[in-house]
Amino acid sequence: MKFRKLLSYKLDNDSTLEYSTTVKGMGRVQINGETVSEKRGFATEIHSFDYNNSSYVLSLSPLFSLYTLGVRFELIRDDVQLFLCGEKKKKSTVSGIFKFVIIMLVLGAIGALIGFSIASLFSK
Q: For a FRET experiment, which of 54, 95, 105, 114 has its CA 20 to 30 Å from that of 25?
C-alpha cells in the first residue's frame, strides 16, 4: 500500500508527527518514522497513542460546509489542544436538529406530491 502524507507537525521535543493515508482509507500516525497508530476509518478517524510520557489523540473528520470541503485535523496532548486545522466541532443544538427535521419533512412532502402527480398521469 502506498501512503500519502497529509499532515506533518513538529512536537515540543523536536520530534515530528506525521499522518499518512491510503486510497483504501488506512490511516497511519508516525513519530520520527516509527508507527505509533494505524487504523482504518470511515469518515471520522481517531488515533490514540502514548509517546514520551504523554497521551496524544489525533482526530480527523470530514469538513463539509457551504464554503469548504476538506478534512478537519485536531491534535490533543494530555487534554490540551496543540493543533486545529479546520473548524471547531460544534455540538448539535435542539433548534438546529428541529430545523433539519422540518426541512426533511418538507422535502419528503414535496417528493410525495411529485411522485403522486407522476403516478396519476400514467394511470390515466
A: 54
pLDDT score for 91: 66
Q: What is the pLDDT of residue 23?
A: 84
| Residue stretches of the chain with pLDDT short of 70 | 64-68, 89-92, 124
Query: Residue 70's domain is classified under what CATH number?
Result: 2.40.128
Q: What is the pLDDT of residue 68?
A: 64
In our burial notation (b when 16+ CB lie closer than 10 A, e otherwise), range 32-43 reads: eeeebbeeeeee
Same domain, 63 and 100: no
Structural domain including 39 reads 4-85
In terms of domains, do 96 and 80 share one?
A: no
The reply to whether 47 and 101 lie within a common domain is: no
**Structural domains of the chain, count:** 2
